[in-house]
Specification:
The chain has 485 residues and is an alpha/beta fold. It is built from eleven helices and 20 strands.
């Protein structure tokens, strides 16, 4: 049976230009999927989203030839949780993943959860990840045990090493002194260690070259390529070909190298004659790490940044290019979330959804320009271990009582982080996202009925998923994280 599969896939790849939709809206021939996922890149860090001081011509072209979203949200405003959400279609707290996993953790993604890669493998897809994993570094949690055929990258964030953010030794007693050297893993084993900023400089180009090679080797069959770049997480690394090229210093240089990476992927798809049959998505894991000043990104006028439940923490850029399907040069203002990518890929590949409940919805109607559709009605803003800090429903966002670390302080510079200020929302606040995306004007006294309406969703969510802000540790739908015991 396996021998017969190869010529069938070759024939279908040859006739990719004859894609048609079936009566249920799915495609008669499955597309390839490329998902580029950037670390700590803010809403305002792409030209078409208002970036200044550097250029992103490839991303701007991708938006001109495809579609960009203005109300797209990461699953949570932090590393591991965000990655869990995009790969499983679940709010990360549903599957027990929160915050950022560290080298000393013995936890990771539960093998009972289904990733995009595992789902697409059932439809004959080749799968690869080149970049940051961050869903558990023990072997049982690594990509090859979670649906991926190939993996080259870091198992967690590039600052989880025994050096500071400018590559210097840490003071005695610092908690990171006990961290191991940062491993570069191929398959299941380390093949090198990132022990200096000079080696950090190689990561974006390395991941890009691996991705291009994968496309070249798999152009005759359907594939899923996941490229979660380590940059622009601090410590920033950039190759010599982009160092010193922008007016915005090292962060701008990093952004231009990421834009170059987009161009390299586009070129490889075109060179192999498969660009027309590929869904290419670019998005980010959370908002910018603002207290790092000139080594951090821009929230594009949104409030706060990474690790907060304000818009700057979780609203992120999203661009999709899907020739012949996503209308060129369009802007979608409808609500969407990273957890919607898995069910959308399932629809296009005619794959079965995971057996366990997911939270994502199929948004392919939006991708194809049907803006009368409204597949997603609301967004849940969870953070911390399991704290429900806000809920957005339509154009309204109800911010619930919670405490957060604010960036309203003097930022650091050149890789050194500045202080953050502890602040608290004492009582519910209501914001109109259409008129006030910067969340400056609490209008709950004018629209109490809107707050009451959203509170009904809050209560049902707390029952299903829990909310530590009100002492509910878990809900009826909570599942366990994976453990290496």
């Amino acid at each position: 049976m396996k021998k017969l599969l190869i010529p069938v896939l070759l024939i279908s790849a040859f006739f990719f230009s004859c894609n048609t939709e079936t009566s249920d809206g799915s495609l008669s021939q499955s597309p390839n999927f490329v998902l580029m996922f950037i670390d700590d890149m803010g809403y305002g860090d792409i030209g078409v989203y208002g970036a200044t001081g550097f250029e992103t011509p490839n991303l701007d072209k991708m938006a001109a030839e495809g579609m960009r979203f203005t109300n797209f949200y990461a699953a949570q405003p932090v590393c591991s949780a965000s990655r869990a959400g995009i790969l499983t279609g679940c709010y990360p707290n549903r599957i027990g993943i929160s915050g950022a996993l560290f080298p000393y953790d013995n936890i990771g993604i539960n093998p009972n959860e289904t990733t995009i890669a595992e789902m697409l493998k059932t439809k004959g897809y080749s799968t690869a990840i080149f970049g940051k994993w961050h869903l558990g570094h023990h072997k049982k949690f690594l990509p090859l045990q979670n649906g991926f055929d190939e993996y080259v990258g870091l198992p967690y964030s590039n600052d989880m090493w025994p050096l500071d953010n400018v590559g210097q030794p840490l003071p005695e007693g610092h908690n990171r002194n006990s961290f191991p050297n940062l491993p570069l893993i191929e398959g299941n084993e380390p093949v090198d260690f990132i022990t200096s900023l000079k080696k950090q400089d190689t990561l974006t180009t390395l991941y890009t070259e691996k991705a291009v090679d994968f496309i070249n080797r798999n152009a005759d069959k359907p594939f899923f390529l996941y490229i979660p770049h380590s940059m622009g997480h601090i410590p920033l690394g950039v190759s010599d070909k982009f160092r010193g090229k922008t007016k915005k210093g090292k962060y701008g240089d990093v952004m231009e190298e990421i834009d170059w990476s987009v161009g390299q992927i586009e070129n490889a798809l075109k060179a192999n004659g498969i660009a027309e049959n590929t869904v290419f998505i670019f998005t980010t894991d959370n908002g910018p790490w603002l207290n790092f000043g000139n080594h951090g990104g821009s929230a594009g006028g949104l409030r706060e940044g990474k690790t907060t439940s304000w818009e700057g923490g979780q609203r992120v850029p999203f661009i999709i290019k899907w020739p012949g399907h996503a209308p060129a040069g369009t802007i979608c203002n409808k609500l969407a979330c990273a957890i919607d990518i898995l069910p959308s890929f399932a629809k296009l590949a005619s794959a079965n959804l995971p057996e366990l409940k997911i939270d994502g919805v199929d948004i392919t109607a939006l991708w194809q320009g049907n803006f009368d559709a409204e597949p997603r009605k609301d967004i849940l803003f969870y953070y911390g271990k399991n704290n429900l800090n806000a809920v957005r429903k339509g154009n309204w966002k109800l911010v619930l009582p919670h405490t957060w670390a604010s960036y309203e302080a003097k930022p650091g510079q050149d890789g050194h982080g500045g202080p953050r200020i502890r602040k608290t929302v004492e009582s519910p606040e209501l914001y109109n996202m259409m008129r006030d995306p910067g969340e400056q004007f609490n209008v709950i006294e004018y629209y109490p009925e809107k707050a009451e309406e959203i509170m009904k969703l809050v209560e049902s969510t707390r029952a299903e998923l829990g909310d530590l802000n009100v002492g509910v540790e878990k809900g009826s739908g909570s599942r366990e994280i994976g453990r290496d015991e």
